[in-house]
Amino acid sequence: MNPPEEPSKEDCCNSGCNPCIFEVYEKQLLLYKKRKEGENASELFFPNAISQLHYTQFTVVDIAEICEAHKLLTFKLKSSDKNIRVTWKPGDHFLLKFTNANCSCTRAYTPLKQKNNTGTDFSIIIKRYKNGLVSNYLYNLKSGQDVLWRGPYGAYEVIPNKFSRIFMIAQGTGIVPFMSIIESILENEDDMTKLILCYCCRNVDSILLRTELYSMKCYWNFTYSVFLSDFKQNVVYKYQEPIVNHKLNKEELLKFVPFSEKDQFLLCGSTQFMEHFKLWLKIQEVENVFTF
Ligand SMILES: Cc1cc2nc3c(=O)[nH]c(=O)nc-3n(C[C@H](O)[C@H](O)[C@H](O)COP(=O)(O)OP(=O)(O)OC[C@H]3O[C@@H](n4cnc5c(N)ncnc54)[C@H](O)[C@@H]3O)c2cc1C
Fold first, then answer.
1. Given the CA of residue 107, which atom of ligand 1 is nearest to it?
2. What distance in angstroms lies between residue 135's CA and the mean position of ligand 1's atoms?
3. Separation of CA 26 and ligand 1 centre (Å)
4. Which residue among 35, 74, 153, 216 is least packed, with the fewest CB closer than 10 Å?
5. This model's pTM is above 0.90
6. Sign of CA dihedral 246, 247, 248, 252
7. Which CATH code is given to the segment(s) 56-153?
């Protein structure tokens, strides 16, 4: 987390603006200190149970099938130490260690905090790829099996009010890091950032975190649209559920022009997906683009 940038004397127009740029800065600084203290305090009381430097053992405690290709897996810390917690920042990922008779490797997955989280568990949404080594291993895990994780890793920082609008363009499981970022911004009443999520999915069955997204529709500063490449007419959608029957295209994004330096774009999906939007944003001269 970075402290807010202090305005210089020249930044103030001396016309008695309400709020003045210095008042905004003071408020942001206060918020920053509060968050920093909070983080330090929780770290002090409960050191992180997961480490970036070595692997920690977790046990699979819950498995839920979301659709044909996706499952929600919940892992619980194996240690019974009551004074530690598994913590991470919004947008962070963990690394899983995979070993079989032929090889040993790691893969990144994004932790998700469930409502009934006990502090020593986390969940992931796994997408199974046809010939995927680790995704198939995870998809076929059974309750009670142990796995090794390390982390958290990630360079994204939520800085309250740094941007006026944050656009998030997600594909498939790319929604997971955005979910925690959205939640942390919406939970902070002092954060006035507007959040615009464009979520690309194959079909209605593969919309991940659908209920959670729908329940956040009521926030004044959050809007979302789900773009389906395979739209089915006879499916029952929720009341005013923002589902669009085509792929995300530039016309949809051009609705938000002009873009400015107060806008930030976050991209999360396959390499091809992110490259496509990165290129388009470059043409639009958008500067603040962060890829996960
Ligand atoms: C920061 C980060 C966070 C991630 N978070 C998640 C997450 O929360 N949930 C999740 O399911 N995955 C996530 N991933 C992807 C994950 O790390 C693995 O890449 C994925 O599970 C595939 O690994 P694999 O060993 O099964 O595939 P591999 O054995 O490495 O690849 C085998 C084949 O699978 C297919 N394949 C693999 N990856 C992709 C892909 N991304 N797109 C299209 N085809 C692919 C290809 O056909 C490939 O040839 C994340 C990746 C990163 C970098």
1. 17
2. 7
3. 43
4. 153
5. no
6. negative
7. 2.40.30.10
